[in-house]
Design a protein that fits this description.
- The structure holds 2 protein chains of 2 kinds.
- Chain A is built from 6 helices and 7 strands.
- By secondary structure, chain A is an alpha/beta fold.
- Chain A has one domain: 3-Layer(aba) Sandwich (Glutaredoxin).
- In chain A, the strands form 2 sheets. In chain A, strands 5-4-3-6-7 form a 5-stranded mixed sheet. In chain A, strands 1-2 form a two-stranded antiparallel ribbon.
- Chain A is elongated and about 75 Å long.
- The mean pLDDT of chain A is 83.
- By secondary structure, chain B is an alpha+beta fold.
- Chain B has 4 domains: 165 residues, Four Helix Bundle (Hemerythrin (Met), subunit A) (Up-down Bundle), CATH 1.20.120; 227 residues, no CATH class; 129 residues, no CATH class; 106 residues, no CATH class.
- In chain B, 62% of the residues lie in helices and 11% in strands.
- Chain B has 19 helices and 10 strands.
- In chain B, strand 8 and strand 9 form a beta hairpin.
- In chain B, helix 2 packs parallel to helix 6 and helix 9 packs antiparallel against helix 12.
- Chain B is globular, with a radius of gyration of 26 Å.
- Chain B starts with a helix and ends in a 24-residue tail after the last helix.
- At the A-B interface, helix 1 and helix 3 of A face helix 10, helix 11 and helix 12 of B.
């Protein structure tokens, strides 16, 4: 019994070692942040418009009916990085012919309306997610997040964080992949 | 030519280490004094050779020798000299060379200074140390050679990561390494003792100075590291529970436990197998740290060379060293217990509680650090474990530890009078309660735990001071003489404990009552933080030696009166293609007002800057506390009883220092 006690540190070390071996094997990228939604249809959403904004809300069915590749962008007026990525997304939408769909996450309608007035509104539809329910369905970890949705309404890529600088480059790479 | 000589020296060092790993060990087993003594020569030779290799690499950096791949990747001819030198260890290969250099230095130090250590123990210790050397020097030669040449050489280098161009970085890795590689010698002592099958108070006495030296520089290294994160990285915090921080912190926690349990082994001849286990585990955690940083096993902000190939090699080394030593422990340690008995209320018991709490804290941090790996292996889910876990798991262990720390030094060995001690501490208790109440009153809201923590920190501060006052009888005549007469180690303890109290205050206040505002600012923007009004006045372009800076000017007033101007900067390094944040800080003892600016917010928002302003109360207590901790450690290390190098001036040799042959 006493011997077993003295062997305990060794056993624990070996167990940790076993996990480490597993961790090193196979092309595992510890910094990748996958989404369970990749290659899945967009979850069922039914979001009303943001009060005071003329752009309509949307449902998942509306999304599927839209042509081409869509960017589903989760944003909020209280979120600094969203402001930073906004011009890039606007440009992407215009130059690359992508449809921008917004999800206004946990935001005051009047603040969102003011924000859109100030920076411009490139979105074809904006759903208000005041309760954060859609955010949970989409499994976001923060704002902004942008999902690339293909013509069939299937989520192809999830991008966490602002689409600026190096992020813009990575986002473009992901976009090119989806297009192929 | 010089890089080739460096590589040659490294290869010779491997041979010296191979000899050292076998010959002294065999000599100790057979009682061959000559073989045993060969360990000293080979340890010194190994040290000189690795020092030469290290010098050769450093020279390549200093003269910007762009025929060496490592220099090309991590240096640039325009870089200030300090960072050229620091570039030597700012990368995987170079830092590994520093690692083995320090390993060899500790081996050589034992060979050179450890005159009073019995031959057999010394020979075995040096052999074990050489086993580690063999592992890591061969790792370097086979997988990460720093001296590889490049043909044709490029005109200039790729620059060192600008984030790493800071005085903090220039000195923090070497200190950190002296700390956690320094525990290697303690590990070697422990394994040698297990092989020998004997642990006695004398053993603990020889081990303590080495533990203390490693612990002190690890404290300094951790302190500088978090200071660097706070001032240079502009992260607005000083500790993030990042995996790489954790792996450096765990050896510190366990090393602290070891420091205390070795005292019990020395004074009371007990806790033997526990001390040995701690010595093994402390260094094992250091090795685990080396492994995690370099293998890419866990994701971290400290991006180092991520290469699973290297990971497999280090994992093999870890298996041999940690697995081997723990197997040896399981085999030999059960025969070793015994020693003095003690009452439940005694200094031994106090130190036992200290050890249990520190070990639990280490286990908590270890679990939190590795949990994402465990979970991913079992369920495939990817998660990251952040500050909430560590705050919830770690702080409740630290609070009772600090309560016990206040009482511990009052207790006497074997049997103590707790009631008597507590009655002395009425003042400390009263002040602690008052401090908590004042904190409660002054701050609006904030976690209850933080209010308690402030009280506990005051308790520790007052109790430690009281103990010192009582010990030196400060208010009676002749106090100065008594202070001088007392062993420096005991003053060192007082200082270190005071350091912990201040550190706890700084840590608590700066995390619980921090104010943090992020705005988009352009000249004219005004904001208010913690009673200060800030006005963003202007922003200008400035040219640095190898960067271009955007410097903002902020005017700070309080109640309408001018306080100071802050100049946060954003630096772009065109060669390296990256940029850094230079925060501007108004430092006072009460707290830091901290401003940093980030990239202009995209093209659409020209002229707007992301301005972050923080107020961190009492954050400077952290650095003062850490300084006391390091100073306390150094003071103890200079104690005559522990002094390892100096020839003994007093005739009376310490008990147990005679070679036990």
């Amino acid at each position: 019994m006493k011997r077993l006690l003295f062997a305990l540190p060794l056993l624990l070390a070996l167990i940790i070692g076993g996990f480490a071996i597993w961790g090193l094997s196979g092309g595992r990228d510890p910094s990748a942040l996958p989404s369970v939604l990749i290659s899945q249809p967009v979850p069922q959403l039914d979001l009303g418009p943001v009060e005071g904004v003329a752009t309509p809300g949307f449902t998942t069915d509306d999304l599927v009916e839209m042509d081409g590749i869509k960017l589903l962008n989760v944003f909020a007026s209280w979120c600094g990085p969203c402001r930073a990525e906004h011009p890039n997304l606007t440009r992407l939408g215009a130059e690359e012919g992508l449809t921008l769909i917004g999800v206004n996450y946990k935001d005051k309608p009047e603040a969102a309306a003011k924000w859109l007035d100030e920076l411009g509104n490139p979105y074809a539809a904006i759903g208000s997610d005041f309760s954060g329910r859609a955010g949970i369905d989409l499994g976001i970890s923060g704002v902004p997040e942008t999902f690339i949705i293909d013509a069939e309404g299937v989520i192809r890529h999830r991008f966490a964080g602002p689409v600026v600088g190096d992020g813009l480059r990575r986002f473009m790479e992901a976009l090119d992949e989806v297009r192929q | 030519m010089i890089p080739e000589l460096g590589q040659f020296a490294l290869s010779l060092a491997l041979i010296a280490a191979l000899v050292q790993s076998v010959l002294p060990m065999l000599g100790a087993a057979r009682g061959n004094a000559l073989w045993m003594r060969s360990g000293q020569a080979s340890a010194l030779a190994q040290f000189v050779l690795i020092a030469f290799a290290f010098g050769a690499l450093m020279r390549s950096y200093i003269v910007s020798d762009f025929t060496v791949v490592n220099v090309v990747d991590n240096s640039h001819s325009l870089k200030p000299m300090l960072y050229k030198v620091a570039g030597t260890w700012g990368n995987h290969e170079g830092s590994l060379l520093l690692w083995v250099f320090i390993l060899a230095a500790f081996g050589a130090a034992v060979a050179f200074f450890g005159r009073n250590i019995p031959e057999a123990l010394k020979a075995r210790t040096l052999s074990v140390q050489a086993w580690i050397s063999v592992g890591f020097v061969s790792f370097m030669l086979f997988t990460s050679n720093p001296f590889t040449r490049i043909v044709p050489p490029p005109l200039d280098g790729n620059d060192l990561n600008p984030l790493l161009q800071d005085v903090g970085l220039a000195i923090h890795p070497p200190l950190l390494y002296v700390g956690y590689v320094g525990f290697s010698i303690v590990f070697s002592f422990a394994v040698a003792a297990l092989i020998e099958g004997r642990v006695d108070p004398a053993w603990a006495r020889w081990v303590r100075p080495w533990t203390l030296a490693a612990w002190t520089s690890l404290s300094a290294g951790l302190g500088l590291g978090s200071w660097w994160a706070y001032y240079e990285l502009g992260w607005g915090g000083w500790w993030f529970w990042d995996p790489v921080e954790n792996v450096a912190f765990m050896p510190w926690l366990l090393g602290t436990a070891l420091l205390h349990s070795a005292i019990v082994t020395e004074k009371r001849d007990t806790f033997k197998s526990w001390t040995i286990l701690l010595a093994i585990l402390t260094f094992s955690l250091s090795l685990l740290g080396t492994f995690i940083v370099r293998s890419g096993l866990l994701t971290s902000v400290h991006a180092f060379a991520v290469d699973p190939e290297r990971g497999v090699y280090i994992l093999g080394l870890l298996f041999l060293s940690i697995g081997g030593s723990l197997a040896l422990f399981a085999w030999r340690a059960p025969a070793m217990e015994g020693g003095g008995l003690f009452a439940p209320i005694s200094r031994e018991a106090g130190l036992l509680i200290n050890n249990l709490l520190l070990a639990t804290a280490t286990a908590t941090v270890l679990f939190g650090t590795l949990y994402p790996l465990f979970l991913e292996a079992i369920t495939g889910d990817k998660i990251s474990v952040g500050p909430p876990f560590f705050n919830a798991g770690f702080i409740p262990i630290m609070l009772p530890l600090m309560v016990v720390m206040g009482v511990g030094p009052f207790l006497s060995w074997k049997r103590a009078d707790l009631a008597g001690v507590l009655s002395r501490l009425k003042l400390a208790l009263a002040l602690a309660v008052i401090a908590s109440l004042v904190t409660w009153y002054v701050t609006t809201g904030g976690p209850v735990l933080a209010v308690i923590a402030m009280g506990v920190a005051v308790w520790l501060l007052v109790a430690t001071s009281q103990e010192w006052i009582k010990r030196v009888k400060l208010f009676q005549p002749g106090a100065v003489a008594r202070i001088r007469r007392q062993p420096r180690a005991s003053h060192g303890m007082t200082l270190a404990h005071l350091g912990v109290a201040l550190l706890a205050m700084g840590a608590t206040a700066s995390s619980a009552w921090k104010e943090d505002i992020v705005v988009f600012a352009s000249p004219g923007t005004q904001l208010e933080v913690a009673g200060f009004e800030l006005t963003f006045e202007s922003i200008e372009r400035q040219q640095g030696p190898n960067y271009i800076a955007q410097v903002a000017t902020l005017n700070v007033t309080r109640d309408g009166k001018f306080v100071t101007k802050l100049y946060p900067e954003r630096r772009d390094y065109p060669v390296a293609g990256s940029s850094t944040t230079e925060s501007s800080i108004r430092q006072t003892l009460a707290g830091d007002l901290y401003a940093s600016i980030a990239e202009p917010a995209a093209e659409g928002a020209k002229g707007k800057w992301t301005l972050r302003v923080l107020y961190e109360p009492l954050v400077n207590f952290l650095w003062i506390g850490t300084t006391l901790l390091v100073f306390g450690g150094s003071l103890s290390l200079s104690d005559r009883r522990l002094r390892v190098g100096a020839p003994r001036k007093s005739k009376a040799a310490p008990v147990g220092a005679t070679p036990a042959e």
